[in-house]
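yo

u said u wanted the structure for the complex thing, so here. seqs first:
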Amino acid sequence: MIHQAAEFIFPNDMSGVAWTVMIVLYPYITGLVAGAFVVAALYHVFGRKELAPVARFALAASFSFCAFATLPLLLHLHQPQRAFFIMFMPNFTSAMAGFGFIYSFYLTLLAVEILLVFRTDIVAMAAGTGIKSLLYKVLSLGVLRETAKSKQIDAKWIHALSVIGIPAACVLHGYVGFIFGGIKANPWWSTALMPVIFLASAIVSGIAMLIVLYVVYSKVRGVKVDDECLRSMMKTLWLFLILAVTLESLELLNMAYEAGEEWHILSRLVTEKLRFTFLYVQLIIGSAIPFVLLLIGWMKKTSPRTRITLGTISGLLVLVQVLAMRFNVVIGGQMLSKSFRGFVQYVPEWYGREGILVAMGVFTLPFILLIAVTQILPVWKIDAHDH
Amino acid sequence: MSCCDNKGGKDTCCETKEAPAGFMDANESRREFIWDAVKNFTFGALTLTAIPIFVEKADAEEVHTNSDGKEVKGHTVLFGYLVDTTKCIGCGGCMLACKKENDVPDGEFRTWVERYVYYKDGSVRVDANTKGTFAFTELPPIDPKEVDKAFFVPKLCNHCLDTPCIQVCPVGASYKTKEGVVLVDYEQCIGCAYCVQACPFGTRFINTKTNTADKCTWCYHRIQHGEKPACVDVCPTGTRTFGDINDPESEISKTLAANRIDVLKSYLGTRPKTRYIGLTAEVV
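structre next:
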């Protein structure tokens, strides 16, 4: 006789999921960091000169999001006052132990690269007197003289930091994927593909965000959207979207095809619990539709005006898709009770420390910082040597 | 005091110091210096390596009081736990004792008892006693004629030899004692809940009183003094056995040797030290 077991979750699962919406937000923010940096690197390292209009802005965006990447984690910790233990007494068998070091390294790298990219402007603006010039004097780190040689050295360093920044971004975000991928107790997480999937979706989200922000900022500033730049971003987004969705689908297909012991519960997770956020939002609304829109959008025949519309819509859809993907991984994985016989009930909290309102508040902070950075630094200026 | 401040007439040290200088060139003295350095380093390294070996050896020869109250010589204590599911009557006394002994908040569990009911139509119903004594109230009345078999399975931390929870703790707050007991340092835990995710058995939780990770300690405060964990003490049927599995004379070792023993989710390779008698394929 083949026995079929009914619903049952382990008693400790009755109190809900341990990782809340903050842990959904955290990989979402670091993904935007990594993705925006990739766009800047495409310009600085891979010679995609058509991306010049957004190259500086991409760095500023990457930095603004990076600056707040730790906040959701801090809000999540049950002992936040011990947060720095992770750097003072790291246990290196834990994938999480590297976090403090990888994060600090990356934030420093971004800050230094931004200061170097904007050095000429900072030095020029530091010349006057008053509070504003004082700010630039601080940003100049006391070096107020620029020579042809110093500019040459800066250019070399910008290139070097962009080069180092690419693997660093991969480590920063691949590591986030490994946090989940390395948990053998959870069949929804435990796959070697997880870091690659996180990385691909990070790049996708970063480019999508830059497209949307570029279009919005251009409207606000009353300037024309550079068609070549937008087209290039849409083409790159389309490519990485294919990569991300292929990897995500392969992972699921592999699980379904092998149909191992846990598939009976995973298939229910996908079709019942995550039906809306996975099948509808992540796969159809956020992947299939933008795939078609982007394809039409990056074709040469498409008019620049249509391109802007298609780019903005698909950018927004992809941003929703990646947020849904983070949700499906983080919350979806925890809905699976380790009894593999039933689902943990997920009730989103609205008002608490880890509630949705606080999460929304946290997510607005990088945008506020980004607006401040765009006020302080000429992020829309195109590097002289490209024009 | 210089080497030449000898009281007795002949100043040998100055002679030996002087003699080599006469026929040793610069290269040779450098070679000698390097050779000395290598010798000293090797000696130092060997000594430092040897210290822990001797310390461990000395430790192993200490006299331990095992959980059977006996003094054990010449081996290291390794605690283990055995659940004989064929004896469990599902009374839930163990759960109440654990809650009381360890001040476990309501709705959080260091141990619980599951019930497996196999119906003749092939369905299996699983539920858990989460309320305490005789609390299996969720199951509708069953006709014994409809049931093939039914049994109880007490659950608790497996105190694995290869623990995923210690592996993932980013600050080393989860650790294993020398007797193989897996514990949480509540002063060091940052409450990230990574261990809760990593435990395949659902035995870890975030304690809402301490705001740290929490789990069964096998009543470490009791077993250090030769007592048994509270759940073992109160079990009226002897379902739960605890003791030193390195001592062949202990009750647990004898039962382990005489029976077919199983562990939960063995395919994950965590090597649990909480072991079971009488599991079926449906028990996870």
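The longest strand of chain B covers residues 147-156. Chain B is about 30% helix and 20% strand.
cya
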